[in-house]
């Protein structure tokens, strides 16, 4: 089985997509992450939802969970609104590590190894400088487990 056999049409965002819009898309589609495309329409990185949280949740609450408990519920429920005009670019680390990107001829084991090595639940598939779609961890598990 090859990457092309596991390929799914998968939503993307750009580096300039607002974080609020990104979070809304993840929520509506029940996604744990999104593929981020650069200006050329090629994968720049994978944005896990946890990176969106890291940007939106105040640092003092991340550093000391006890402080998160003292914030009243009305304000605690609105933490995502405080991201203002921040974009996907703001949520990404300055230098992306190895990108979870493969070609359509990669074997299923190559895709699994890439996911494991990059700790990414998504792998973007690119052929001749064209983004084709993604392979999700769920689809990969479905195929290898025979479900």
UniProtKB/TrEMBL annotation:
Q: Name one Pfam family in it.
A: CBS
Could you read off the lineage of the organism from its UniProt record? Answer: Bacteria, Bacillati, Actinomycetota, Actinomycetes, Streptosporangiales
Q: Which UniProt keywords apply?
A: CBS domain
Question: What domain of life does the native source organism fall in?
Answer: Bacteria
Domain CBS per the UniProt entry, residue ranges:
94-147
Name of the protein this chain belongs to? CBS domain-containing protein
Which InterPro entries does the UniProt entry name for this protein? Answer: CBS_dom (IPR000644), CBS_dom_sf (IPR046342)
Q: Quote the Gene3D superfamilies the UniProt record gives.
A: CBS-domain (3.10.580.10)
């Amino acid at each position: 089985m090859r990457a092309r056999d596991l390929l799914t049409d998968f939503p993307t965002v750009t580096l300039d997509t607002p974080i609020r819009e990104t979070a809304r898309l993840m929520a509506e589609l029940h996604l744990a992450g999104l593929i981020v495309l650069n200006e050329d329409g090629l994968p720049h990185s994978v944005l896990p939802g946890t990176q969106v949280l890291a940007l939106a949740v105040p640092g003092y609450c991340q550093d000391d969970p006890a402080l998160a408990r003292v914030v009243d519920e009305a304000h605690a429920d609105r933490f995502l609104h405080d991201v203002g005009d921040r974009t996907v670019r703001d949520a990404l680390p300055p230098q992306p590590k190895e990108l979870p990107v493969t070609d359509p001829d990669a074997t299923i084991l190559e895709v699994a190894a890439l996911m494991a090595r990059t700790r990414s639940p998504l792998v973007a598939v690119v052929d001749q400088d064209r983004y084709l779609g993604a392979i999700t961890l769920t689809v990969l598990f479905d195929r290898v487990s025979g479900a």
